[in-house]
Amino acid sequence: MSETLQSLFDLLEPLYQGHPAWPVERDRIAAVVSAAAEARSPALRALDADRAAHPAWFGAPDMVGYSFYVDRFAGTLAGLRQRLPWLEALGIRLLHPLPMTLSQSDHSDGGFAVADYRAIEPALGNLDDVRALAADLHDRGMALAMDCVLNHTARDHPWAQAALAGDREMRGYYRIVDDAAEVAAWERDLDEVFPDTAPGNFTHEPALGGWVWTSFYPFQWDLDWSNPAVFREMLDVLLFWSNIGVDAFRLDSAPYLWKRRGSVSRNLPETHRLVAALRAGLDIAAPGVALLAEAIERTADVLPYIEPQDGTRAAQLAYHNGVMAALWVALATGDAAIVGDLVRDTVLTRPDTAWLTYLRCHDDIIWSALNGRVSAEALDRISDFYTGVGGFGDGRRFQARPGAAASTVGMLASLVGTKGPEALGRYRLLLATMLALPGMPMLYMGDEIGLPNHVDPAAPDDARWLHRPPMDWSRADSAAAGKGAGAEWLALTERLLAVRTTLPAFDAKAATNVQADVPGLLVVSRGGDSDTVVLVANFGDVPQALPFAGRWKDAIEDRPIGRVIAPGAVLWAIRCD
C-alpha cells in the first residue's frame, strides 16, 4: 500500500505542500484510506477484482443507466427495490438515483444542498436500505451510482453551522472573504450560474463577519479545497459509500472546486489534479468503483477530467454534454454535421474510460456547451425553437450566463412534440442515434413512456422542475400491457435496448469511424471487420442514398434494407452477405 499511497501524495503535494496543516493531514489521509481498505467486504473485493479484469465494465453494450429521483420514482428506497423488475425488463443495468443524502430543511436545490454526507433523507429510508439496494442490484448483475456533491454544503451542514458559531477550524472549510472590495475583485472574473434567481457568487453572512462564496445559491456554501482537510473529508465520504456498496459516483459541479484570483475559477488544472487524487485514493481501497465527472462545459474543457494530458488516471466517465446538445441542434436544424464532428473529435484512448451519453437529465440543456462550434445567434434561435417558436417543442427558456443562449428545460417527450407519429419518430431518431454512439447511455425517468412536462406548484422559482415529474405508474402499467399513450414509447425503448445488448460493436471501447458528411446524414461505423454496425441517421427532410453497397439489414427491425433512407429514419446496418 505504501507505493499506492505515494502515488496519491505525489498528486497532492503540489497543491498542499505550503499549507501549515499538510503534514498532519497527510497522516490523516493515509489513515482514512488504510481503514477503508481494511474494512472493505470480501464480496466487494471480489467485485473489484472482476472489474480490474474489465476496466471499462461500465461500457459494455448491455450497460445502460437510468437516472431518477427516488421519491418521484418509487417513494422510498424500499419502494425502489420493488420497482427493480420494471427496470430489469426495460434493460437497465445501472441505477443513478439523484441526491439521496440528508439535505437542507427548506430550500435544498433538489437535494444538492447537502446537510449530512453520511445520512439518507429520512423520508427515503436509511443506510441499511442503501446496503440492501446495493446487494440486491449486485445479485442481479446491476450497479448503483450515487451523487457526491463536492463543491458545496448546505448552510444547514454542521460544518457551516460551526463556522457561524465561530469555530475557526470549520471556517477554514469554506471560502470566506472579509472585505467588500475583495469580493468585487473576485467577481470581476467570475460567471454567474443562476443570474436570474441567484446573482453573484458571494453571500453576506453577518455572523461570519464577511461574505461566503456561494457559486450556486445563497444556502449552498462553497468548500475551500485549498484546505487539505476538505480533501480528506470528501475522500472519506467516497470511501464510506463505496464500502456500503456504491459502484460509481457522480462528481457534482466538479469544475468549480479550485478558486484562483484573476481566473473564472472553473476547470483549473488544480481541479483536474483533485479529481485524479480522489481517483488515486479510491484505487487503493475500492478500485472497482468508477468516477463520473459532471462537467457541463465545452468538450475541450471536459476532456481533462477523463483523459488528462499528463496521463494521470482521473474520472473514468464524463457526461458527453456536447453530443447531447448537438443531437438536439441536429433535430432542430436538419444538419447532423456537428454531431459527427464532435464524435470524431472525442474518441477516447485510455482502456478504462468512456463517455456517458444521454438525451435528457434532471438539468437544463445548456447550449453554451457548443460555443465555438455554433454561433451564439444560431443557439439563441434553437433555444427559441424548443419553446415552440417556429418549432414543435413545448419546452421553456431557462436562465443563462450573460451573452449566452438561454438554456432549455422540458421533458424529452414535450421537446419532441408529445403527440402523433412525428413525435415518436423523433424520439426513435434521437434514441437510436444516441445508443449507437460510443459511450455508456443513460436514460431519464419517464422518457421510456413518453412522460410529458409536469408543472410543480411547489417549485415556482426553478423551471427545471418542469422536467422532474412524479413517475406515472398508471401510464407505465398500461404501457407494459400494450395500451395507452405510453405503449409505443415503451415498446420502442425496450426493443432498442434489447437489440443493443446483442451487438458487440456498441461496446464503448469499440472502434468508431465517422464517415464523410452528407448534409443531414450522420454515418458512424462501429466495431471491427467481423461485427461492424453502421449507424445511419437522416436528420434532414429529404431521402438520402445509403453510403454503402452490398446486402445489409437493419438490426433494429431485423429486415433487409434498400438503397435509400427516408427523412427522420435511423438504421443500425449490419452485413448479411
Account of the 3D structure:
By secondary structure, this protein is of the alpha/beta class. The chain is 37% helix and 17% strand. The protein has an 8-stranded parallel β-barrel with strand order 1-2-5-11-12-13-14-17, surrounded by 4 helices. The protein has a 6-stranded antiparallel sheet with strand order 18-19-20-25-22-23, covered by helices on one side. Strand 18 and strand 19 (521-526) form a beta hairpin. Helix 1 (2-16) runs antiparallel to helix 12 and helix 14 packs antiparallel against helix 15. The longest helix is centred in the first third of the chain and has 18 residues, at 22-39. It is globular. The termini are far apart.
Strand order of the largest sheet: 1-2-5-11-12-13-14-17
Number of helices: 20
How many E strands? Answer: 25
Q: The biggest beta sheet, please?
A: 8 strands, parallel, barrel
Structural class assignment: alpha/beta
Descriptive tags:
single chain; 577 residues; alpha/beta; eight-stranded parallel barrel; globular
Short structural description:
With 577 residues, this protein is an alpha/beta fold.
Please outline the helices and strands:
Elements: H1 2-16, H2 22-39, H3 42-53, E1 65-68, H4 70-73, H5 77-82, H6 84-90, E2 94-97, E3 101-103, E4 114-120, H7 127-139, E5 143-149, E6 152-154, H8 158-164, H9 168-171, E7 176-177, H10 180-187, E8 202-205, E9 210-213, E10 220-222, H11 228-244, E11 248-252, H12 269-285, E12 290-293, H13 299-306, E13 317-319, H14 321-333, H15 337-345, E14 354-358, H16 376-385, E15 396-398, E16 407-409, H17 412-415, H18 420-436, E17 440-444, H19 473-480, H20 487-501, E18 512-514, E19 521-526, E20 533-538, E21 544-545, E22 552-554, E23 559-560, E24 564-565, E25 570-575
Parallel strand pairs: 1-2, 1-17, 2-5, 5-11, 11-12, 12-13, 13-14, 14-17
Antiparallel strand pairs: 3-4, 6-10, 7-9, 8-9, 15-16, 18-19, 19-20, 20-25, 21-24, 22-23, 22-25
Helix pairs in contact: 1-12, 2-11, 2-12, 11-12, 14-15, 18-20, 19-20
